[in-house]
Design brief:
By secondary structure, the chain is α+β, with helices and mostly antiparallel strands. It has 18 helices and 16 strands. Helix 1 packs parallel to helix 4, helix 4 packs antiparallel against helix 7 and helix 11 crosses helix 16.
Length: 511
């Protein structure tokens, strides 16, 4: 798209749409998208919230009356209205040079002709295949029975038809007419409350990004309902410790990071919700305050895990017990960053939440529905309580870095709940340890998942053993932790330096 004269927005949207077919377990037009766009010459980036809302007639009280205690991932109640198509339409309308026909041309070709399945995509597909039934099996399994293996060609003839409608009619081709009718009828047959009016009313929202500093570097995120503020809070907690004096792969750094993550994620689960929820602005200001950061820093013992770390934190936040969203591991997201010749930066993330989202698809066109509604809680009175027309707490977060008020990097770290932790670790890798962009992506990771402190195999065994002595239930991570991409704009030379995480099937390209 760049070689054909398109800009960074054209390229990012086109590539994202293609990845909805190349990595269907990760994303698709039945999902949501968020973006940061920093146009050259503008003082600050703009943020776009492309997350969908719960059906207007669905609410937690009604589900509680039915004896339902949580939003099940594989239920129609988990399917919020897909927001990605409207987000892409907004981006193309405001910044793009091409329209839907050009943006969808590669995806339509992939869907019609098929594509050879890549290594990581094949592994994710195989993991999910036993759980795909009915319409999902018909549209996403070969002969309705098995996942394709690496190198095998897979096509989506039904989805190609839907994409062709969108290419002709734009967003209306998705949110109105035959495609929307197929989605609504399929969801209603599965017990959903979705209506044509819910789809027609879907709109993305331009938002003012939030930011925090880490040793002179500015970390820029989208405000809630995403968890970007948790990344800022975690980075600011870590700033209170001399991490540059520690081994980047040693137990002390992993320990301090895990304790900071425990507190940042606890705060996230207490307070992050739809920005239209009463008190949202006050909760955001609270999380960004210096006093809260200092109080959380003071709770960390740099040499030992504290079993009581979170005791009394509710008093600090003046809220009751934390009630998190679905805690299951979900690393199912794609991330793209593009910088064009004019140095406009795009940071875009696009997901269906869990592997193949809700594991539900529309009958006719095979559109895989996201499971973002599982990010709600049904607890009465919680800021993130499910209500009709409300957006759930979201895990996907695009990021940018600035130095001296100028754009420095566009990046994202995939991996569901890991993302906030991943943003904090990436900025620390760059700033504290002087890693180049590829090193910062390659370096082994650790992550406290609420039960175990997972460390990747790149850590020495001695670090794992010492983490146990420090009081952590540490283990070798059962799989790769997250993924990521980054482009750094070298302020001294103007050169673009890309890094692509080997944990996924991505790559860095330039010309």
């Amino acid at each position: 798209m760049l070689r054909q004269g398109g800009n960074a927005v054209d390229a990012a949207v086109t590539a994202a749409l293609s990845l909805g077919l190349l990595e269907p377990a990760m994303t698709g037009i039945g999902g949501d998208a968020f973006a940061l766009v920093w146009k050259d010459g503008e003082a600050r980036p703009r943020g776009l919230n492309g997350s969908g809302r719960a059906p207007a007639s669905l609410d937690a009280a009604g589900l509680r009356q039915q004896g339902i205690e949580a939003v099940a991932r594989e239920s129609a109640h988990a399917v919020t209205i897909p927001g990605a198509v409207d987000a892409f339409d907004t981006l193309l309308s405001e910044y793009g040079t091409y329209g839907w026909d050009r943006a969808l041309a590669p995806s339509i070709a992939i869907a019609r002709e098929g594509h050879p399945v890549a290594q990581r995509a094949a592994a994710d597909w195989a993991d999910e295949a036993p759980h795909l039934k009915n319409a999902m099996a018909r549209h996403f399994l070969l002969d309705g029975t098995r996942a394709p293996v690496m190198g095998e060609v897979f096509a989506y003839p039904a989805q190609a038809e839907a994409l062709e409608i969108i290419a002709r009619e734009g967003r209306a081709g998705f949110y109105e007419g035959a495609v929307a009718e197929d989605m609504v009828a399929s969801l209603n047959a599965l017990g959903g409350h979705h209506t044509m009016a819910d789809f027609a009313a879907t709109r993305s929202t331009w938002v003012e990004p939030v930011s925090g500093h880490y040793r002179g570097m500015e970390l820029i995120e989208l405000p809630p309902n995403g968890q970007g503020v948790a990344a800022i809070l975690m980075a600011r907690i870590l700033e209170g410790f001399e991490l540059d004096e520690l081994d980047p792969h040693g137990p002390e750094r992993a320990h301090i990071e895990a304790e900071a993550a425990r507190m940042a994620y606890d705060a996230r689960d207490r307070m992050i919700a739809d920005p239209d929820t009463p008190g949202a602005a006050d909760r955001l200001a609270h999380l960004m305050s210096d006093a809260v950061v200092r109080a959380l820093q003071d709770r960390i013992d740099p040499m030992a895990a504290r079993p009581d770390l979170l005791e009394g934190v509710a008093d600090l936040h003046e809220l009751g017990a934390a009630i998190g969203a679905d805690g299951a591991q979900h690393r199912d997201t794609i991330y793209i960053t593009v910088v064009d010749a004019e140095r406009t930066m795009v940071s875009l993330i696009y997901s269906v939440f869990h592997g193949f989202g809700s594991r539900l698809a529309s009958d006719r066109f095979g559109i895989n529905f996201q499971s973002r509604g599982a990010g709600f809680t049904l607890a009465e009175g919680h800021p993130n309580e499910l209500k009709g027309g409300k957006r759930p707490m979201h895990t996907i977060i695009p990021g940018m870095l600035a130095r001296d008020g100028r754009p420095y990097a566009s990046f994202g770290v995939m991996g569901g709940p890991y993302q906030a932790n991943g943003h904090a670790r990436l900025i620390s890798n760059l700033v504290d340890y002087g890693m180049d962009p590829q090193e910062a992506m390659d370096a082994p990771r650790s992550f406290y998942d609420g039960e175990f402190l997972n460390v990747e195999r790149g850590y020495p065994r001695s670090s794992l053993d010492l983490l146990g002595v420090m009081g952590h239930d540490a283990r070798v991570a059962p799989g790769a932790i997250g993924g990521g991409q980054i482009i750094v704009l070298d302020p001294a030379t103007g050169c673009l330096v890309g890094g692509s995480d080997p944990r996924k099937d991505g790559c860095a390209l330039g010309f």
